[in-house]
Amino acid sequence: MRGLIRLRKMPIQSKWLRRLAWTTLGWNVLVILWGAVVRATHSGAGCGNNWPLCNGEVIPVSPRVDTIIEFTHRMMTGGATVLVLALLIGVLVGTVKEHRARIFAWVAMLLLINEAFLGFLLVHFGYVTTNRSVGRVVVLSIHLSNTLLLLAALTVTAALLTRDESQPRIVANAMTRWWVAAGLASTIFVGVSGSLAALGDTLFPSATLTQAFAQDFSVAAPLLLRVRWVHPAAAVVAGLFAVWLIGQARDLPLRRLTAILLVLQFLLGVADVLLLAPVWMQILHLLGADLYWIALVLLSLSVLLDQTPIPVSASNVL
User: Fold this and answer.
1) How far apart are CA 56 and CA 209, in angstroms?
2) Which single residue of 56, 173, 177, 262 has CA 20 to 30 Å from 188?
């Protein structure tokens, strides 16, 4: 018992490790946003079906615009790999053996490896540019789910490194745990359906808002357009879970931040529809979604653990 008490009273991790954790999370958000640029600009085939080489070259010579966009994304992904690996090594070296952050750092590394494999499948099978196959929909859905889980693992790793406990206790009852899991799962589903809706907007752009609504209810329209309604419907359901979660948390600043980002996401979603999903709006909407997801994961963590505020302040991060 004394050893356990002493373990929980250990000081928070060094500033460089916390900074590395939050930097890694932020970099991965940028990688996700640039990946959306690749999709929206039909640049997924910019390096051909070669992976990890780009058109058979380590560094493309005289590249086209789509090659530059795709190659930049690959380089950013390489940077993410270096950061996640450095974070894992840093956590293993800089924390005690029982620290919970070690588990999530390992999970993040495994999810990143799976992320690279899914990216390889998209390129290898030609599930890029104007490809409309079922295979692309399936792999893309799994890819985005993996991406959100990766962000969640990195978020939890950074949050646990910021706390002053290496083994925080889960105090939430079984019912609360199930509701939190359902809220997070429904939010992942919203992200996946939103990605498919964005893919439909990219592959089958509409000239007017009237035409877009007509496509949604036309039996002759592609399936990707006829299921676009799933995204806003799922967003409403997930939003109800989020409202419940916000009400359960005691961390007032985090509650406010999550609520603001939730409202902002609905506003960006409406603007995305009214503006017929231009590329810049899709990227802005995705940025809001990533920030909201990170805030929701932090809020969930505060509910599941001892419900004390997670000290994510500028001084702790920097």
Assistant:
1) 42
2) 173
Q: pLDDT tens across 80-91, in order?
A: 999 999 999 999
Alpha helices in 163-278 (DSSP H): 174-203, 209-216, 223-226, 230-248, 252-274
pTM, to two decimals: 0.86
Q: How buried is 173 (Cβ within 10 angstroms: 0-12 exposed, 13-18 middle, 19+ buried)?
A: exposed
Q: What is the pLDDT of residues 188-241, one digit of tens each?
A: 999 999 888 888 888 888 777 787 777 777 777 788 888 888 988 999 999 999
- Which two structure tokens, joined as six digits, stand for 242? 């989020």
Query: Crossing angle for the helix pair 134-162 and 174-203, nearest 10 degrees?
Result: 130
Nearest one of 229, 232, 302 to 265, comparing CA atoms? 232
Q: Which long-range contacts (CB under 8 A, 24 or more apart) does 78-83 make?
A: 79/27, 79/31, 80/24, 80/27, 80/28, 80/31, 80/112, 81/112, 81/116, 83/20, 83/23, 83/24, 83/27, 83/28
Beta-carbon contacts of residue 280 (< 8 Å; ≥ 6 apart): none
Collapsing DSSP states into helix, strand and coil, what is residue 57? strand
- The DSSP H or E segment spanning 67 is helix 65-94
Distance between CA atoms of residues 65 and 124, nearest Å: 20
Tokens at residue 189, please? 């589903």
- The dihedrals phi and psi of 209, each to the nearest 5 degrees, come to -65, -35
